[in-house]
Every structure is written in structure tokens, then in C-alpha cells.
């Protein structure tokens, strides 16, 4: 199988809050990249592909919050595959640093950031 992934994924566990249509859903972050998140919901709910939602989580052992507007790519059981559609500058800066620390290759990260800016 050919690997199509353009962005390095990092295993990262943290509690997450998913805001969708005025409802707050609780879940756990499983992994993340500069372009997406994998989240396990605590409870099942009906969601359709392409639905928009906001995901909020706090970096472990800090008071740094990351907030990202996301689009649902796929839902399997209670696991959501999300694509980040918008993220503020502070959140992307913290996310970049988190990925950089876990990937350990700043050249690779710079290539991924360049790729991120070319996505529409």
C-alpha cells in the first residue's frame, strides 16, 4: 500500500471538547498532525461527513489551549477523522511546536508547513 500521507502524525493523548451545532461533545485526542486530528468520542452521536465542528484541547501539563475549526472526513464507531479547515495563529504555532518536538526533524516539518500553505 502506498503511503499518501503528507503530514506526520503524532500520538498525543488529551481530553477534547467538540462543539457541533450548539452541542458540546466530550472526547479524547488520539493523534494529530498539522492538517488533522483523530478524536475518540466518549458517547456515540450522529454525524455526517463534511460536517463542520470546533475542537478544543489543552496541552498536557500547561494552560495552552488549541482551538481548531475542523471538517469531518470519516466517522467509524466513536472515532472521528477530522481535517483542520481553520486555526488561529497562536494555536498553529503551538501545534507546530508539538509536532516538531515529536517528529524530531525540523527540515521535514518545514516541508510540511510549506505544503500546508499550498492547500486550498
UniProtKB/TrEMBL annotation:
<dbReference type="InterPro" id="IPR027021">
    <property type="entry name" value="C-di-GMP_BP_PA4608"/>
</dbReference>
<keyword id="KW-0547">Nucleotide-binding</keyword>
<protein>
    <recommendedName>
        <fullName>Cyclic diguanosine monophosphate-binding protein</fullName>
    </recommendedName>
</protein>
<dbReference type="Pfam" id="PF07238">
    <property type="entry name" value="PilZ"/>
</dbReference>
<keyword id="KW-0973">c-di-GMP</keyword>
<dbReference type="GO" id="GO:0035438">
    <property type="term" value="F:cyclic-di-GMP binding"/>
</dbReference>
<comment type="function">
    <text>Binds the second messenger bis-(3'-5') cyclic dimeric guanosine monophosphate (c-di-GMP). Can bind two c-di-GMP molecules per monomer. May play a role in bacterial second-messenger regulated processes. Binding to c-di-GMP induces a conformational change of the C- and N-termini resulting in the exposure of a highly negative surface on one side of the protein to a possible effector protein.</text>
</comment>
<dbReference type="InterPro" id="IPR009875">
    <property type="entry name" value="PilZ_domain"/>
</dbReference>
<feature type="domain" description="PilZ">
    <location>
        <begin position="3"/>
        <end position="100"/>
    </location>
</feature>
<comment type="subunit">
    <text>Monomer in both c-di-GMP-bound and free forms.</text>
</comment>
